[in-house]
Write a structure and sequence with these properties.
It is found in: Membrane. By secondary structure, the chain is mainly alpha-helical. Helices cover about 75% and strands about 0% of the residues. The chain contains 18 helices and no strands.
Length: about 475
């Protein structure tokens, strides 16, 4: 058939097919193939459901054990160090600073570690961090042999600064190793390590008190340091070679993230929580001396709030994922914290004397307050940040986590430092009055924000739950969790 004899209808149909194919190609180029996207999601889901390899299990176990030891090292001195420091001539202000300088060092060193990790590699930074903490812990155990007065205080501060820097290095590198070794289970492994450090923080005072009762001042620190050095050796041999190029280089917009009233309020909620935690860490033991408790029993009282927090944190996470706004739970946390500060002393305007059972009940309420304030704050901050247009990816999680960690570290520094000063000047009971006033003020701020900026803007629409493992276990202290011991 000649070109002149071609059917014009067939030519038109062929032209339309080519046009349709061209349009489809453009759609696929611009927006990506829906089929490929669906297949990628299915593949990603299958990858997430895969079991860990033996190598991954070995890495996870060594990291978990190291985090437990780090948590215990941070908190084990709480039941007996204030009394030992006073024997050395240190004032409550001075040994309060010894407690707080650790967190201040973490606050300042963490960004530096994040900058240099690509140069030194995560594996080296992790081993160096664990080694520094282990050696510093052992050195802290020999401080009872230091001269009385200022030399003792200066040496204690120097060792705690080293511990804080080592912890910042270990924590920063752990996050990177998680992203490299467990790319499909970041939330799960992150929450597991946070839980381990939380358990260490909870058990630390009891273990420290028991070891102190058995072997004196040196035994708790030497034991913890030796275990950390052993873990460092295990990490060196177990951790595989890591491809440092796979670490995400993109960072979130920090200025845009903090340029929000809700984010600033979230920072304040976390700060005040750990401020109360740090206050107790430095001042609760002197307050309880009137009951003549043994070091083991005294250490056990520090566990109460942490145990309550660990038990209730997943429950608060489950509730928050089903509420249109997390602010009411935060308000409840402020109320619980206010009640705790009223009766923990109790405050001087309460016509009640200090009683051990009342202190124990108050510490239980304190554990509820920590969960009510920290869990909804992390969930709400993450939800709010994503709703503001930030991507639902690791960079946004990093921004929220950095805010949480910074507020935690700053509060945990101010709490024991100012707490020791208040104990020195006005005493424990009047010090709790100041914390009570701060919590009342925070309650008013959160309530005003909730009414003015959430209800009026119609932002109480139902929220879809975020990743279950992230929202219910990422703090369980967690975050902070880092302070559960008190």
């Amino acid at each position: 058939m000649s070109k002149e004899d071609k059917n014009p209808l067939l030519e038109q149909e062929s032209f339309e097919k080519k046009q349709y194919k061209s349009v489809e190609d453009q759609k696929e180029t611009l927006y990506g193939s829906n089929k490929l996207s669906q297949n990628d999601n299915i593949l990603e889901s299958k990858q997430k459901n895969k079991k860990f390899t033996p190598q991954q299990w070995a890495t996870l176990l060594t990291l978990a054990f190291g985090n437990f030891c780090i948590g215990a090292t941070i908190s084990l001195q709480a039941p007996f160090f204030p009394q030992e420091a006073e024997k050395k001539g240190a004032t409550p202000t001075e040994y309060g600073l010894v407690f707080g300088i650790y967190q201040l060092t973490m606050f300042l060193a963490a960004p530096l570690c994040g900058k240099i990790i690509a140069i030194v590699t995560p594996s080296f930074m992790l081993n160096a961090g664990i080694f520094i903490i282990g050696v510093a812990s052992i050195l802290f155990g020999f401080l009872d042999r230091a001269p009385n007065g200022n030399p003792f205080v200066y040496l204690a501060l120097a060792v705690r600064v080293a511990e804080g820097f080592g912890s910042a290095a270990a924590k920063t590198s752990s996050y990177s190793i998680i992203a490299l070794q467990f790319p499909n289970s970041v939330a799960k492994t992150f929450s597991l390590l946070e839980t381990c450090i939380g358990i260490g923080l909870i058990a630390g005072p009891t273990i420290g008190g028991a070891l102190y009762e058995v072997g004196g001042y040196e035994l708790p620190f030497i034991t913890a340091g030796a275990l950390l050095l052993i873990d460092g050796i295990l990490v060196y041999f177990v951790l595989p070679e890591l491809d440092n190029s796979k670490i995400p280089r993109k960072s979130g917009d920090l200025f845009k993230f903090y340029k929000n009233l809700g984010t600033g309020l979230d920072f304040l909620v976390v700060f005040t929580t750990f401020n109360c935690v740090g206050f107790n860490q430095a001042t609760l033991e002197p307050h309880l001396r009137q009951f003549n408790l043994t070091p083991f029993v005294l250490g056990s009282t520090f566990v109460i709030s942490g145990a309550i927090y660990s038990i209730t944190a997943p429950i608060w996470g489950w509730i928050c994922d089903r509420l249109p706004s997390t602010r009411p739970i935060t308000l409840m946390g402020c109320i619980f914290m206010s009640i705790c500060q009223l009766f923990l002393g109790p405050t001087t305007f309460m016509p009640i004397d200090t009683q051990l059972w009342l202190v124990i009940v108050s510490l239980g309420i304190f554990g509820l307050a920590i969960g009510c304030k920290l869990v909804p704050t992390f969930i709400g901050a993450l939800q709010n940040t994503i709703e503001r247009g930030f991507p639902n990816d690791l960079t946004t999680y990093g921004l929220v986590s950095s805010m949480f960690t910074s507020a935690m570290a700053l509060g945990a520094f101010v709490g024991p430092t100012v707490g020791g000063y208040l104990l020195d000047i006005i005493g424990f009971r009047k010090g709790t009055e100041i914390l009570f006033g701060i919590e009342i003020g925070l309650f008013v701020l959160v309530a005003v924000y909730f009414v003015s900026f959430r209800l009026k803007l119609g932002e109480t629409r139902p929220r879809e739950p975020l990743m279950d493992s992230l929202t219910t276990a990422i703090i369980s202290e967690g975050v902070r969790t880092k302070s559960i011991s008190v």
